[in-house]
Design goal:
Layout: E1 5-8, E2 25-28, E3 34-39, E4 43-47, E5 52-57, E6 64-69, E7 72-77, E8 81-90, E9 96-104, E10 112-115, H1 119-142, H2 147-160, E11 173-175, E12 192-202, E13 205-214, E14 220-221, E15 233-236, E16 240-241, E17 250-258
Parallel strand pairs: 2-10, 3-9, 4-10
Antiparallel strand pairs: 1-5, 4-7, 5-8, 6-7, 8-9, 11-12, 12-13, 13-17, 14-16, 15-17
Length: about 280
Amino acid sequence: MKLHLRYCLFSLPLLVCHSTVNATELVQWQRLPLPVELHTGHERVIFVNRNVRVGYPAELDGKLRIQSSGGTVYLRAAEDFPDTRLQLFDMDSGELILLDVRATGGDELEPLELRYDDTVWRSDVVMEEETKEQTRTTMQEEYTGPVPVVLTRYAAQMLYAPLRTVEPVAGISPVQVRLATAVTTLLPGESVTATPLNAWRLGDTTVTAIKLQNQNKGRVDLDPRALQGNFLTATFQHSWLGAHGTPEDTTVVYLVTDGSADNAILPEPVTEKTTRGDK
């Protein structure tokens, strides 16, 4: 039987967790599926320590909430379900990490952390992240605020303010948007079209402005947690969309990413074309 997996990748600008569970369960990844127990109604944190996106079978829709941010995966079961396999796709190495998750009743569980044999690889990743963080810190000292804030403010001024009033910022330059003309994977849970507009870069950080337009007659409240992708920050120009056809049916979301946004947003699904003569 062929499994049809869906992939999700989230990054929240701010996440605060309060928990009475202090211990962490350590497990070794040895190329064998890892059993992961969930207790229904409680969130379990998994420290993957790699940049992953999560693949899951369609039968988990509505049963399991999955969020992923900065090498950490958050799983919360809404109801009990038997052993079901999740695939963690390593965005850097291409490796698949397999989890066999099941949900039953019980109290809150401790976090789970994955350990690997390739300690040299992990050290390289840590060093790379430390270098990026040092660069961001230096840039923040040079500008009036954190780099994502500076970029978002600049992008909003470029789109909404008269050009003569836009405050120039040294180092910011426009870059080409390398996304599909219509992005369908950004807000798949809403009847909203997403059209890339412009992008600007400061150092290794990019802000991409994407127009959102409601296609339904009902109001849509915009929640950054519903966005699928790996973003440093995500900021909406307006917090909601009015009914389609009204002046309020359109807004802009500013996505700040490491590098280009096409590496942070899930790729568009590939559609199979039937050639003439195929049966």
